[in-house]
């Protein structure tokens, strides 16, 4: 299994989860799932997907972290000022969720993946 395969699987799973957990989700922890889970998983996934680019700058962990977190902050700021982009309700906790998602993506990409799959170090 390759790094690209695992990241693609994660991205498809998060995409499917986004459709499964809609506003009517009533399963376990509905407030967390409806309010923050996707705000954590989408930045994590975007961080991982950007790591697949061939461009050395885009693959840089610092660039990816700043770009993904910055975009999340832009989304929340636009909601705060009444211009909804990818959502309509400003929530300052979403910014923490975006930061957590980026940190989780970095943890997977920079710590867990190399330890679990030593051949990925060559890619």
Question: What does this 3D model show about the protein?
Answer:
With 123 residues, this protein is mainly alpha-helical. It has one domain (3-22, 31-122). Helices cover 72% and strands 0% of the residues. The chain is built from five helices and no strands. It has helices at residues 3-20, 30-50, 56-59, 61-80, 92-116. Helix 2 (30-50) crosses helix 4 and helix 4 (61-80) runs antiparallel to helix 5 (92-116). The longest helix has 25 residues, at 92-116. It is globular and about 45 Å long. The model has no long low-confidence stretch (mean pLDDT 89).
Which key phrases capture this entry?
123 residues, mainly alpha, 0% strand, globular
- N-to-C CA distance: 13 Å
Helix content: over 70%
Biggest β-sheet: count, sense, barrel? none
How many structural domains?
A: 1
Write down the Rg: 15 Å
Short description:
By secondary structure, this protein is mostly helical. 72% of the residues lie in helices and 0% in strands. Helix 1 packs antiparallel against helix 2 and helix 4 (61-80) packs antiparallel against helix 5 (92-116).
Topology, please?
Blueprint: H1 3-20, H2 30-50, H3 56-59, H4 61-80, H5 92-116
Helix pairs in contact: 1-2, 2-4, 2-5, 4-5
């Amino acid at each position: 299994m390759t790094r690209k395969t695992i990241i693609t699987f994660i991205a498809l799973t998060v995409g499917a989860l986004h459709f499964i957990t809609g506003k009517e989700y009533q399963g376990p922890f509905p407030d967390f799932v409806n309010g923050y889970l996707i705000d954590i998983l989408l930045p994590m996934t975007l961080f991982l997907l950007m790591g697949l680019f061939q461009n050395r700058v885009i693959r840089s962990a610092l660039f990816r972290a700043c770009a993904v977190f910055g975009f999340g902050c832009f989304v929340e700021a636009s909601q705060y000022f009444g211009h909804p982009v990818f959502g309509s309700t400003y929530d300052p906790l979403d910014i923490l969720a975006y930061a957590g998602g980026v940190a989780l993506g970095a943890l997977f990409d920079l710590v867990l993946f190399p330890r679990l799959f030593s051949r990925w170090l060559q890619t």
